[in-house]
Amino acid sequence: MGDAIDLSGDGGVLKEIVRRAKPDAVSPSDDLPVVDVHYEGILAEDGHVFDTTREDNLVFSFELGSGSVIRSWDIALKTMKVGEVAKITCKPEYAYGSGGSPPDIPPNATLIFEVELVACRPRKGASVGSVSEDRARLEDLKKQREMAAAAKEDDKKKREEAKAAAAARIQAKLDAKKGQGKGKVISYHTSHFMISFVRDYKLHHWMITNLNMDEVDMPAL
């Protein structure tokens, strides 16, 4: 919607407004330090989304200035209004630095966040503990989603195996029926081969079978 604003003064935290808030919307302050946000975190290098609250629709809550988030968030969220959506680009020194945050964020990674400020409220009723609980619930929901996906894949595999087994049983029955004679069989052995005369009442023909199981039709009797 507009040019990026250099919030840190050194290019370390850039903010671009994606959607403006209403003119009378409030901003975080000393009286309203606790914020609720939706966000999507992206690695600038390859566009990989490493974290999001959108899938579970659970806002992330924290207190500005408490040290519970990366520096760029403390800097950027103070400039936002409720209802605003902003794209925040963070250099490593304002994010996770040279250590990164394994396994999702590599060392010295520049990050891009699309953040929506959903609400800001007083400190009363909020604490660092409640923020941790919100984050824990988000992680729990992610694990549940992963477990559900794994269970779904396992069920699919079992269904495919069951279908294959059923098909094999049906084929075995067909092969068994194909090998059964419907008439009378008279057999005798010679030193080189066995001859079986088969009288088929439906087809009315004779078959002679050698040791290689080759079939040759004989004229009908």
Automatic annotation (TrEMBL):
**What's the top EC group for this one?**
isomerase
Q: Where is the PPIase FKBP-type domain?
A: 32-121
Is the Isomerase keyword given for this protein? yes
Q: Can you list the GO cellular component terms from the UniProt entry?
A: cytoplasm
Reaction equation(s) it catalyzes:
[protein]-peptidylproline (omega=180) = [protein]-peptidylproline (omega=0)
Q: Which UniProt keywords apply?
A: Isomerase, Rotamase
Q: What is its EC number?
A: 5.2.1.8
The record's GO molecular-function terms, alphabetically, read: peptidyl-prolyl cis-trans isomerase activity
Q: Name one Pfam family in it.
A: FKBP_C
- Name listed for the protein in its UniProt record: peptidylprolyl isomerase
Q: Please give the organism.
A: Brassica carinata (Ethiopian mustard)
